Amino acid sequence: MTYLLCLLLVLPFWHHKTPEVFRVKFETTAGSFIIEAHRNWSPHGIDRFYDLVRAKYYDDSRFFRVVPGHWVQFGINGNPKIARQQRHITIPDDTLKQHNTLGYVAFSNTGPNTRSTQVYINLGDNTARNDIEAGFAPFGQVVEGMDVVEKLYGGYGEHSGGGMRAGHQDQMFEGGNAYLDREFPKLDQLIRATIMKSN
Length: 199
Known about the structure:
The protein is of the alpha+beta class. 25% of the residues lie in helices and 23% in strands. It contains 6 helices and 9 strands.
């Protein structure tokens, strides 16, 4: 049994106290970037994000939806068994306190109170859409390496991973990395995400 699958069975792991502010380093095939997360921006969101990073949920996954000028999306584990186990574990919405502008980070969703594991980074100003719909409350911001985020491969656009709300992601959940690597081999990889030690 993998480390993450073991953690999924240990409920106390998912109730760890989250710092008020913390940084996560993302190592990718395009380089590294850092997200700084703030509890007062999105309490439910930051708790979920912190636990998923601690559990190594995002490690060895793909940036499956990259639309230049709009967003980068990730957050489906490459192991189908793990991805399916977490797919329907959701958190309540948070009140919007920051805006969906360049570099801000939030959870994707399929409607009110449906945030689960998928995260997007804004590649432009998405306030006209995402600030008015429930659930898109940013919990963090890219503070280093935005140039790396902007060069993640976006040639597939919506075709490789869009359609969360339309229900078009089943093949990713069923096939995991094997499916994405076969059908969309140019996607950049999220090698690992690590919570950085505070100074």
